[in-house]
């Protein structure tokens, strides 16, 4: 019985350390929105105009910076697609240095990703946001950034972050 208690205690301490480390790394690598970035109008590949501040007044917006060349993005993008398929309507992705519009559309179609995407072929938008790591996920609510995370994310983790915001 003492071995079980000790194992549970060690597991709890380990989990808390991993969680604290994860938050610290996310804080260090967090993107910074430039002034008035949330009011900026972005043009999606489908021709739709997107303004993050306006969208985030209705419900939280998940902003996803990714690249077709990014191996971790290839693991995270299915989670993003799952959210889009589950009806998370305020989801905007930014394809960072992934080619011209046609190349990004082909990539999205090939992987059957049906999320709203803004192309950033030169990385200009991503540089303005100080994106250091892909994937980077930002949650915006009522015109303010309320949460950021980088790296691999699961659908459950993303749903929890959206729910908490």
UniProtKB/TrEMBL annotation:
Isomerase as UniProt keyword: yes
GO molecular function: isomerase activity; oxidoreductase activity
Annotated keywords: Isomerase
InterPro entries named in the record: Redoxin, Thioredoxin-like_sf, Thioredoxin_domain, Thioredoxin_ResA/DsbE_sf
Highest taxon above the source species: Bacteria
Domain Thioredoxin: 31-165
Stated name of the protein: Thioredoxin
Recorded name of the encoding gene: trxA_2
